[in-house]
Specification:
binds 4'-deoxy-4'-aminopyridoxal-5'-phosphate; about 40% helix; Aspartate Aminotransferase, domain 1; alpha/beta; binds glutamine; 7-stranded mixed sheet
Length: about 375
Amino acid sequence: MASPTIHSKLPKVGTTIFTKMSMLAAEYKAINLGQGFPDFMMNPDLIALVNKSMQDGNNQYVHMNGLLSLRERLAEKMADLYDANIHPDSEITITPGGTYAIYTALTTVLRPGDEVIVFEPAYDSYIPNIIINGAIPVLIPLSFPSYSINWQLVKESITSKTKMIVLNSPNNPTGSVLSSYDIEQLRSVVKNTGIFILSDEVYEHLIFDDLRHETMLRYPDLLERSFVCFSFGKTYHCTGWKLGYCVAPQPLMNEFRKVHQFNCFSSHSPVQFALSEFVQQKEQYLQLGKTIQQKRDYFQSLMQQTKFTALPSHGSYFQLYRYEGLSEEKDMDLSVRITKQYGVATIPVSAFYTGQKDDRVIRFCFAKKQTTLEEAVNRLIKCG
Ligand code: PMP
Ligand code: GLN
């Protein structure tokens, strides 16, 4: 009997490196400094607010664009932090996580044959999201080892088919951040073009060394062509809650919502009621950069006892380390070996390159309890 044959829309895609390394960590009972999630407790007050919200009966659908009072609070926050004039009703949509917001923005804009500029190493979802829409990722390597953008290469890569540029600052996996120079360059590249911007800013508050977060929200000429994506999971240490939002000007957001309403329709309601209160507590996000920076600094000081060499991290949960004094193995082989042999899981940076470019660098997530970092480094000291 004939049976249906499925022709993969993503033939080159396997299981994500984060899942693979987390499964390996579980199998070998390794300390997981691979996948990006905190192992410390989130704020119990937010848990209490969600609990109360459920008890109060906020358990049915909210508006498809998200609870209006939450969007109003977010608009106030963006005005306060970035001097941005965002209309809560027409320019913000609450989504089930940042990943979903990114996918929806790409799907809203892209048609087959469109070109999208993506910088590598790239967060793993961008390229499959582009390909599934029939569009073409145009890959530009960040300059190694600073992981900065080579704007000359960007200018040379623009064609009449360029539809979008994907940005991610603070950057996963590199911890690099956009500077005011990058913004100037970006402005000159997109000026008088029809190019859209997808700006993944899920780590907006995880920025260190008193650097300023260069969000598209600060620049009306960039914002008019941008979809800016955020995640509550990163801001409130609850990555498993999968709630985020997208900000875009009304004409772009109208189209975004057409895609959104038939995919998810509306996002988890009790958490939205809780967040509409909790986002008013400014200190919760204003102190975040400092708190996570202390973890970066502590981890970095402990790591000096090992043969790994730190590359700078100015933001995110992550820091990259070179290991040339330790091994000549491929980064993937080293990551797997130290998980199995020494009990610490990491992420090989080649996994963020389509061509598996291997600069012999691995990524550590330092958003962990002090004791976790200490125990991990005690194990890494033994690595040879
Ligand atoms: N973008 C980047 C760069 C990330 O690291 C993450 C974290 N997984 C996301 C987007 C997605 O966030 P969320 O978990 O809210 O989907
Ligand atoms: N963003 C997280 C990381 O980079 C993981 C999220 C996921 O597993 N997709 O580790």
